[in-house]
Amino acid sequence: MGGPLRVYSGRNRPDLTPIYRLFEGLTDTKVALEVIYHLDVERRLIEERDDPRADVLVTNSQVAVEAVRGTGIFEPYAAEVARGYDEWLRAPDYSWLSFTAWPRTAMINRRVLPDPASWPRSLEELTTERFRGKIGMATTNEETTVSQISSIRAAKGDAYTWALVDRLLANGLRTYESNKATRESLITDRNAVALVNSSNYHVFLMEGNPVGEAWLDQDEGGLGTHLEAHVVALVKDARNQDAGRAFIDFLLSADTQTLLARMFGETPVNPSAVTGPVRPLSKIRRTKASLAKITELRDSTREYLTKKGFAPPARD
Q1: How far apart are CA 97 and CA 192, in angstroms?
Q2: Which of 115, 50, 72 is nearest to 234 (CA)?
Q3: CATH assignment of 103-226+289-310, given 1.10.10.10, 3.40.190.10, 2.40.128.20, 3.40.50.1820?
Q4: What is the pLDDT of residues 15-64, one digit of tens each?
Q5: Backbone angles phi, psi at 193, to 5 degrees
Q6: Which partner from 68, 76, 129, 228 sits 20 to 30 angstroms from 252, CA to CA?
Q7: Residue 15 and residue 96: Cα distance in Å, rounded?
Q8: For the packed helices 143-156 and 291-305, what is the interaxial angle rounded to 10 degrees?
Q9: Which class does domain 5-101+228-278 fall in?
């Protein structure tokens, strides 16, 4: 492998620097990292496709990369671990691969709801009086919000979904500019519930905050929870594709997946990884919605939510 591995990252939290340093230490391949705002990184690759300046893309949304897969900016790579994936964890042609999953959960402020028996069990329950003005969720600044609502549209239809959004808003749903701000609102605003990714709960708990985690709509026949993932992709015509493939194999390895679960509470996609306190994928009831349909609904979901007051006030 000659020259540095050039990584464009649309992910800025949690910081993957320990993972890049470990790869460098194991392979003697220098990682040249450029962090780009997550809503801009795919556009940057499209602009540079005639002269690629990155070897690998690391970012935080399957939907964002699937939306641009047809432009041909990615080089398919069927990594050994990915060949055993469920279909929703990869592009149909292996142009992008998930490297950790992010299930949506409800983070609970245990100072407000000390008894686990009082924690919500469904999104519908959050529209009831006892949660009035006590729920936080990120704006459309976060792909997580757009993807979660799109998955509900795909599974239950527009009439049900938009009525649910209206009832949440009527019940005093508070919106914040990022998942980070949403989780912090549990303490600063004394919210009872924050709709976030499961990894947000683990990171916030490890900082010493009095929080718990409620899994919503997990009963038999229930809606399930939205499951998406952080992704990695090899850039087409990249200068150092050998290093790119080696990095992808490293990222998907059981050891690295175990480390990501330990450090950041992220859900491994390699079944050989040790999940520890992180709920394994096999134990999560996923909302029944295809990634293709969620991607198709992305723009119209963002547009509708923006009109409803979910527009981000500023980049975070």
Answers
A1: 35
A2: 72
A3: 3.40.190.10
A4: 999 999 999 999 999 999 999 987 799 999 999 999 999 999 999 889 99
A5: -135, 140
A6: 68
A7: 21
A8: 110
A9: alpha beta
